[in-house]
Amino acid sequence: MGARLAANPTTIKAAAYNQARSILAKAGSDSAAKSHPVHGTGDVPVRYGTSLLAGSRDEFRSKDRNVPDKKSGMSPAHYQAIHDAARTMGIDRW
Description:
Elements: E1 11-13, H1 14-26, H2 30-34, E2 43-45, H3 46-63, H4 76-89
Antiparallel strand pairs: 1-2
């Protein structure tokens, strides 16, 4: 039997979401840059984070379609940014 992936948490810290949003915006995600930072609460539903990751992933794949050296359909820098953001929020699947 293969190894099982850990389940995503049910909530993530607002600070972790905001840090992940910043990572993705700095990497060039327009959707992350346009999203609003979370404030006034300690935790947010994990779907906030998975939606942020999925939107940035799709955007990066579209932007990188003509890049010759890709990882998972993205430039290596965009791939790394997505995974750094996911790790920051403790999200394994999106």
